[in-house]
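Dear colleague,

Thank you for sharing your sequence with our group. We've completed the structure prediction you requested, and as agreed, I am returning the results in plain text so they can be pasted directly into your records. Please verify that the sequence below matches your submission; if there's any discrepancy, let me know and we will rerun it promptly.
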Amino acid sequence: MLFLLSMICERFADFLKHAIGEQNIRLFRWIKKGFGIGNTLEKRARDSVEEDKRYFRILKINIACGFITALILHADLFTILHNLANPADALSWDGYKLDIYKFSFVSSKNGNQLIPVFLFGCLGTGLFISFGSKFWHDLLDLLLEVKNYRRVLSDPNTYKIDKTATLDRIISTYPSDFIMPAFYEARTKFTAMSNVKSFSLKQENGGNYYFDVILQQADPTIGEVYQYLLDGNIPQNINVRTRVLGAGEHNIAHSITLGGKIFDVKTPDNWGTLGCLVKNPDPKDTRRYILTCCHNVIEPMSRLPVQARSINAGTIPVVVKGPIGVVTRAERDHEIDAALIEIDASLVSKIDNVVPQMGQPLQARTLKNRDVGKVSVFLSGAKSGFQQGVVTGLYCDTKLTYPAADLALPGTGEEYQFLNLIVITKDSTAVTQSGDSGSVVLDSDKNVIGLVLGGNSYESYVIPIDTLLTKLNVQLV
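Please find the predicted structure tokens below.
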């Protein structure tokens, strides 16, 4: 945050430096004279004394600009340090009122803050950001380099290297430079193994990447490290963590058999869950569709491609008896398992596009690597009810078993492989259960992340919303 503030301060100071140097406006002439700033533009490299004086004059401008910037944005250093978990909360005058008699600002959030303390805090921030964006950029680079040195030195294979050039190459290569090519290479190898049921890229709290592998049975041939070779056969090691499913447990699609019902809250065990409302991108098209999982409405999958058929509704959440519409599209490939139910025009106004305890979904959100371990997610499944979790992995490749029609033999149905799913967990366990597939997954700002597809006891799998919208050519209502 200080880096961003320093960029603002830098532009502000650069403007003043030129404005004062040119002396075209009376105000700038007054500033130049009153603060003894003098010439700020003419460099005198051969006269070190005069050049030092010019540097000092520019430094005064930078500090003044830093203080003014901090004052305007309420960037009080003490308040920022008090909000290290979320420092952006400190940059606001919202809720502050001036109390002249107490000589302080009164805030509904942080209590009273004496004006002198606030001014000293802004001065402290001003001094920090007056160093310039290059200082903060170099500091961030230094921290990143130290982190990379720590990674390299903690790897036992580093001490087997006997060539200086190879060691230099490893030290100068950051995980972000090679992690995705390494992931795609490893994914091809691991998912070819029938025992591997899920393979995903994850990050530790410290930010180090690792491969997470879920197995049907323990496999001693899978080591703790995956070695990726850069150009020139220079090795880079990525940690591998394996987990084994419990006895009789399978990686399954989260529904059992539907019998033509969706989200029947009275008997939710065997039903899937409604996702959200979508529409055709054409503004003239007034039709509305329910977006849910394909396996919620088509059973078995051998019936694809499907003809339009009536779907009876339970609670959604307004009670609607009888058919709510027809399945106009149902598709499954290696990235999506999705269906569109065109809602009967007379019922559109009766179906609330609302997630319980969250409200109406807003816009689609595409997740990035930086979101792993940081983005909280929320959903409301027909079986689990309202649940909260966190995004713990992206680009997950998983093999899901569609349960057989005979419920006495779970996990004996068809196995199908999906790519590029989102992984969500709650305290290292799954967020969802059978019956939750199709649930729309939201972030804390009600943006849509995707739809629940399936999972196991460790984690739940979500189809990214941008993949769904692109392939089905629809948009959120």
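Summary note from our side: Residues 17 and 89 are 31 Å apart (CA to CA).

Kind regards,
the structure core
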